[in-house]
Amino acid sequence: MTATPPDPDPDRTPGLGLEPGGGVRPGDTPPESGSTTRGLSRRERYPSRALPMITLVFVIIVLLAVVAFTVISLLGIVKVF
């Protein structure tokens, strides 16, 4: 299903007071088209910084675990030899 365009088709809209060539007579107002924007009425929210901080902490914990595992493995290998 396709959406209908927001502006009416001037060729199929009767009685808009259009002059030949599609112009509008002085004093007439063309129909308004729909809008999907809010303009500047509300401030946009900034994305939360909590998720990147949680991700950073998680990455640091994983790196520390990998380093600890590597050190313990190397100490075990050195102890064997």
UniProtKB/TrEMBL annotation:
Name by which UniProt lists this protein: Uncharacterized protein
Domain of life: Bacteria
Pfam families in alphabetical order: DUF6480
Record keywords: Membrane, Transmembrane, Transmembrane helix
Cross-referenced InterPro entries: DUF6480
Region (Disordered): 1-44
TM stretches of this protein: 50-78
